[in-house]
């Protein structure tokens, strides 16, 4: 059935007049009358009784009017639902993240996303950065939050947090009372290093690069520690010193003091990562919120 003719029929039935319906539809009466005749011919029934005072819907026309209204309501609901899916307003998103992302970057992103897209089901998975990459490739998660850079041509990334690296020192360290510490002053100190992953320089690469720029290679007393909380805990236990993201200062730990690095002031980037070919509308909505959150933080700084 031609939906355009069906709309014409509803207009005539509701106005009880071809003239009024034609004006409402912004068309002349003869083409409208012709369209109704074509509809009656198509259905094989008379839909209107013509009288000197207008038109009256027949019994068959009453049934068609009821069904037509139901069809148009369903079409409108379907159209809205399709648009919401297409605009990334409904659906589901699975996000993997390294634990330290929850210290500063993740909370404002989640708050903004839940406020703007309350009907998107959001599933959060805390995991190692190498597992984030593996599960992205396997299609088991839609996006991940980990430290950049990431050398993977199948994945794209966008920075969502840029912050300085700070020194975590045992509170009894000889430099603990300094306002800031030159990184070169830690040459020869035992270092606790984050985990290193193939094709993922990440935080490990940033720490090594910062030390090398300061003129030394860190002496690892403990390495391949993937949890930032564990690194801070080992510092508190006097095992060594560490370079950690500044947001770790939110993790109050007895026995640890944090010092800004003088001179070079190294930084680290936390990024959202996703499959290059991914075209999910919900993912697009999440990336938009994440980028907006980063830009807002940059403006506030």
Question: How do the helices and strands line up, and which of them pair or pack?
Answer:
Layout: H1 3-15, H2 18-24, H3 29-43, E1 48-51, E2 54-57, H4 59-86, E3 91-97, H5 106-116, E4 120-126, H6 129-137, E5 143-148, E6 155-170, E7 180-182, E8 190-194, H7 202-213, E9 219-225, H8 228-236, E10 242-245, E11 256-262, E12 267-275, H9 281-300
Parallel strand pairs: 3-4, 3-5, 7-11, 8-9
Antiparallel strand pairs: 1-2, 5-12, 6-10, 6-11, 6-12
Helix pairs in contact: 1-2, 1-3, 1-4, 5-9
Descriptive report:
It is a single chain. The longest helix is centred in the first third of the chain and has 28 residues, at 59-86. Helix 1 (3-15) packs across helix 2 (18-24). The radius of gyration is 32 Å and the shape is rod-shaped. It contains nine helices and twelve strands. Helix content is 41%, strand content 26%. The model has no long low-confidence stretch (mean pLDDT 90). The chain has 301 residues and is an alpha/beta fold. Strands 3, 4, 5, 6, 7, 10, 11 and 12 form an eight-stranded mixed beta sheet that branches. It has a two-stranded antiparallel ribbon with strand order 1-2. A two-stranded parallel ribbon has the order 8-9. It folds into three domains: 3-86, Arc Repressor Mutant, subunit A (Orthogonal Bundle); 91-160 and 270-300, 3-Layer(aba) Sandwich (D-Maltodextrin-Binding Protein, domain 2); 163-268, D-Maltodextrin-Binding Protein, domain 2, CATH 3.40.190.
